[in-house]
Amino acid sequence: MNTIAVIVAGGRGERFGAEAPKQFALLGGVPLIVRSVRPFEESDLIKSIVVVARPGDENRVREVLPPAEFTKVASIVSGGLKRQDSVWNGVEAALDRRPDYLAIHDAARPLVTTELIEKVVRGAMMNRAAIPALRARETVKRADGAGCIVETIPRDSVYLAQTPQVFEASLLREAFSLARAEGFSATDDASLVEHFGIAVHILEGDPRNLKVTTPEDLLVAELLLGQNPVR
After folding, report:
1. Rounded CA gap, 25 and 49, in Å?
2. Average pLDDT of the residues in 213-218
3. From CA 222, how far away is CA 226, in angstroms rounded?
4. 106, β-bridge pairs
5. Spatial distance between the Cα atoms of 194 and 175, rounded to a whole number of angstroms
6. With 70 as the cut, is the pLDDT of residue 14 above it?
7. Neighbouring-strand partners of residue 141
8. At a CB cut-off of 8 Å and minimum separation 6, what does 211 contact?
């Protein structure tokens, strides 16, 4: 099967607060984007990789992902205004290589493992669409605009989605097409697919696979990396 990874590094990282985009922040002396791409490079189930860079950062991405080391990186494309636009740009580039499956991953999750990647890819091969997610541990509240609780949501049915999210390529392409026609936008790719009535299978995620959004997240990632220095 031809599975292509689309690594999304097109965000502005406004909440991160640094001058440089967070995907170039160092984790254990290595840029986040390098740590995010490497497990896909090392996976036997991933045939090639498309990296989506923030406009203007394409050359910098090429510098930190040299072809001699990252042989599976087939193309580096520019991102769009929103995450959904950036993902589509990557998907469109990947579709030229006739994939059977697409694995969409946020570059801001630098501690993803090859084991998790391959588990989700295999899940998608069985179910057409699969994502890793963690069960909510805390009690979940829904609030109104004034910040007052309006509902307590049973946490047994609440999951915190992660990436990579893997889909049958034709399925994801159709979901994007329908979303554009309808003007529907989503914060993750599973939302696009589920919005059009397709079941997305949940697999157990990895607590270490955190998303680095703030400087505090980077500190947590450093601690987690220290527990597993092989990466």
Report:
1. 21
2. 93
3. 6
4. 8
5. 9
6. no
7. 152
8. 106, 108, 109, 162, 217
Q: How many domains does the chain have?
A: 1
3-state helix, strand, coil in the chain (%, to 5): 35, 25, 40
Contacts of residues 187-194 at CB distance under 8 Å and 24 or more positions apart, as own/partner, are 187/83, 188/131, 188/161, 188/163, 189/87, 189/104, 189/165, 190/129, 190/131, 190/161, 190/165, 192/84, 193/129, 193/167
Which two structure tokens, joined as six digits, stand for 110? 């630098």
What kind and span of H or E run contains 191? helix 189-195
**CATH number of the domain where residue 169 is located:** 3.90.550.10
Tens digits of per-residue pLDDT, 33-69?
999 999 999 999 999 999 999 999 999 999 999 999 9
Domain that holds residue 206: 3-227
Which neighbouring-strand residues pair with 103? 5, 166
| Mean of pLDDT over the chain | 93
CB atoms within 10 A of CB 148: 8
pLDDT tens per residue across span 102-157: 999 999 999 999 999 999 999 999 999 999 999 999 999 999 999 999 999 998 88
* Confidence at residue 21, expressed as pLDDT on a 0 to 100 scale: 79
Cα gap 7→213, rounded to integer Å: 16
